[in-house]
Amino acid sequence: MDSTCLVPIVKHGGGEEDFQKLPPSTVPEMQRSNLSPVILQLKALGIDNVLRFHFLSPPPAQSMVQALELLYALGGLDKHCRLTEPLGVRMAEFPLNPMFAKMLLESGNFGCSAEILSIAAMMQIQNVFVVPSNQKAVATRAHRKFAVEEGDHLTMLNVFEAFIKFNKSSQWCQQHFLNYKGLIRAVTVREQLKKLLSKFKVPKISSEGDPDPILRCIVAGFFANAAKLHSTGVYRTVRDGHELHIHPTSVLYAEKPPNWVLFSEVIQTNKYYMRDVTAVESGWLLELAPHFYQQGTHLSRTNKRAKLDNL
């Protein structure tokens, strides 16, 4: 779920009265998740009027419109809400969130397709870091060796590259408290994504250890998921002003919080937490998504663009 689909938190206390207020069933996934992948696939199937499509559990109209806006901002849809060629058609072929697809398709232009392939593959794996209940301190120290100040995406890249360097060893994974099966899965996913990039003639290039092209490429895909640190100590999405927090599993959680971040997804527990978080420069948002953001002194949605304050 991305920032466009956030809804207010409903707090429940204890007791029978509060229990009676709970909804009779869980809200269907279609009504609470990011709809952009669904809409992109419907468009690829030739279903133009997605707002009138007969869903089993019809999603809120606002969520549909926001997903269309995102796909338009990514370049996957034109101003008539038709699939663009070739970008939109190519994005629809990826079995991923359209933001990941855009990031991958742009990676050749940034000169870092090798690294972005690894990052995209790792982002599809849950619980890469293993933390046994009786070895928490040891596991945390082992995981810290892979962490970088830029955030989770480059940390996952470090884990993947180290896994390959040590010949995909299960023993090495055990020593470093890493999910061996998950990493093997990431290798498979990467190969599948690599074939798609070859099909679309995206050049195979490495940034050769330079993190800036990688970070800028992440911005090119995930610019809509930007948040700024406020004086209150919480983050707010740049476009909507929704309150977010860095997830405790993020490598940025215990560090000095960066002023600007991008995130891959938001999950809800007692708060709304950003997962897979990376620190970015605010100027990159203006440079790489000028159609989505504009410089200003107040947060605004004027002309469908958010203003960045205090640049």
Strand residue content: 5-15%
What is the N-to-C order of secondary-structure elements (H for helix, E for strand)?
A: HHHHHHHHHHHHEEEEEHEE
User: Which structural class do the helices and strands define?
Assistant: alpha/beta
The termini sit apart by 28 Å
Q: What strand line-up does the widest sheet have?
A: 1-2-3-5-4
Largest sheet: 5 strands, mixed, barrel
Q: What helical percentage do the residues reach? A: 40-55%
Q: What general form does the structure show?
A: globular
Q: If you average the pLDDT, what whole number results?
A: 84
The total count of helices amounts to: 13
- The low-confidence runs, each spanning 5 or more residues with pLDDT under 50, are 1-14, 21-32, 297-304, 307-311
Assembly classification: single chain
Description:
Residues 66-157 form the Helicase-associated domain. InterPro entries: DEAD-box_helicase_OB_fold (IPR011709), HA2_WH (IPR048333), Helicase-assoc_dom (IPR007502), P-loop_NTPase (IPR027417). Keywords: ATP-binding, Nucleotide-binding. The chain has helices spanning 16-21, 29-32, 36-44, 61-74, 87-93, 98-110, 113-122, 136-144, 152-165, 170-175, 180-199, 211-222, 282-288, and strands at residues 226-229, 235-237, 243-246, 260-268, 272-279, 293-295, 306-308. A hairpin with a 3-residue loop joins strand 4 and strand 5 (272-279). The model is unreliable at 1-14, 21-32, 297-304 and 307-311 (pLDDT under 50). It has a five-stranded mixed β-barrel. Helix 3 (36-44) packs across helix 5 and helix 6 runs antiparallel to helix 7 (113-122). It is an alpha/beta fold. The protein is built from 13 helices and seven strands. The chain is 42% helix and 11% strand.
